[in-house]
Amino acid sequence: MRTSRSLRALAVAAAAALALTACGSDYPLGEEQREAAENSTSTLSGIISGSGSTAQGPAMDAWIGGFRVLHPKVQVQYSPDGSGAGRNALLAGAVQFAGSDAYLQDEELGEAREVCGPDGALDIPAYISPIAVAFNLPGIESLNMDADTIARIFRGDIEFWNDPAIAAQNPGVKLPETRVTPVSRADDSGTTENFTEYLHEAAPEAWPNDPSGSWPGGLGGENAQGSAGVISTVTRTEGSVAYSDDSVVDDSLGTVNLKVGEQYVPISAEAASIAVEQATRVPGRSDHDIALHLDRTTTAPGAYPLVLISYQIFCSGYEDADTVELVKTFGQYVISPEGQEASAEAAKSAPIPQGLAEDAKAAIESITTLP
Prior knowledge:
The chain is of the alpha/beta class. Helix content is 37%, strand content 21%. It has helices at residues 5-16, 31-39, 57-70, 83-91, 106-116, 147-155, 164-167, 190-202, 226-235, 269-276, 321-335, 337-347, 354-365; strands at residues 46-52, 74-79, 97-100, 121-135, 142-145, 181-185, 222-224, 240-245, 254-260, 263-265, 280-281, 292-293, 307-315, 317-318, 368-369. Strands 1, 2, 3, 4, 5, 6, 7, 8, 9, 10 and 13 form an 11-stranded mixed sheet that branches. The protein has a two-stranded antiparallel ribbon with strand order 11-12. A two-stranded parallel ribbon has the order 14-15. Helix 3 packs across helix 12 (337-347). The protein is globular and about 65 Å long. Keywords: Phosphate transport, Signal, Transport. Belongs to the PstS family.
């Protein structure tokens, strides 16, 4: 079971710390925000809080900054505690929205009805980003790999970088006889769930484990907290390799080109967007719940199927009308062209496809005040 009642109590305690972030300057964004506040015609005011995905962190910073320029009297607080923690906090009623790199599962949908009213919660795709397989091998900027090889690396079956399975896909590359150190996420993570789903579907024999937000026990290597934590570990450990949202990977690390069909596709926002265009709606959901199933085995030219769709999870209803207005206005900004451009600049994300953005807009507009 991915969530539990005991975790709910922890989520409440963690989310309570969000209130501390409201302290500080009236204009934390500086002169631009001060001028916007003085000239703004927006009457919207109040505070909403969210928690969740660390992958969304850089994009969330950009969204909060852009939104506060438009609505200077509104404070949006976000704590990047991990996708699992964010969902727990929302289902505990501790925050008004969650950021999650995995959509709500059936059990969580049932729990959401206790907090959000009879129509439960809504998964709204807001952030699309490729997951990088990043490694620390000085002098090597990229390597070609198929899903089977990646799975065997993270299971510990491939122990050295000059293994024949890697060498065969990278002719002409001088691979060192350096020990491979896989690094995984220590926290419950939507990035982990997306990564293990890719491995399970694209290389089921090498990765028989079911997809999960928690890293399988018993495997070797190291682990670290959050996207930034795993990349920090890789940066200081030669021979290490990790999976992470691409937004936190810089040029000091190499990245893997995925084998898709007969081609090796480099990581990019454009390639991630092509993969998302192949996604289908998860069946059995409400009309406004936009949970998506990605085709991890696609052979579409140029697609990079190791991608995450990160969601903003909102209640379908809130008891307070002011909260409804704040949530809807912020949600619409996030999926707007301006919001998507802000996240692309800050986090290398791919824009939401137009049709998906229209569905998301209608879903957010459906949020209502509970009787």
